[in-house]
Write a structure and sequence with these properties.
Distance between the termini: 32 Å
Number of domains: 2
Helix content: 40-55%
Shape: elongated
CATH class of the largest domain: Alpha Beta
Bound molecules: FE2/S2 (inorganic) cluster
CATH architecture of the largest domain: 3-Layer(aba) Sandwich
Largest sheet: 5 strands, mixed
CATH topology of the largest domain: Glutaredoxin
Structural class: alpha+beta
Number of helices: 7
Order of helices and strands: HHHHEHHEEEEH
Amino acid sequence: MDTRKLDKIIEQYSNVPGQVLLTLEAVQEEEGYVPKEAMCYISQKTGVPLSQLFSVCTFYAAFSLKPRGKHIITVCEGTSCHVRGGPRLREALLDLLRIPSAERHEKSITTADRLFTLETTRCLGCCSLAPVMMVDGNIYGYLTPKKLPDVLKNYEWEAP
Ligand code: FES
């Protein structure tokens, strides 16, 4: 991340309550994640220990230490979705997004082009629509692998 941008952010939140949180939030907003180099730079400039910055980033779910995609897909792995084909749906999604098999077991997967980040959850609160997934806050229910391309096309995805 550009150090001029970082300096501006650091200056903006210096001497205000919640400085650490606000600074990290601004970096997350700007980059889509909090790069390690940015954390080191903030630590040097503010005197806040790196360990404290790291603790904040790992405690709050809003922060990510890895680059995230432009669109966030959350696949439900709850019981209702599981029994109604959730695992098949996830597999089809991984195929469509061309996720290498070595990465498929990870909790958060980002496509190489950083268009999508795929995550899972225990329940999206709409079990009657199972199997369900959410993209950027929009719920898609009664899904089948066949319906997935049409959903993804709404988010700039192009069929290979
Ligand atoms: S189990 Fe999937 S929405 Fe509840």
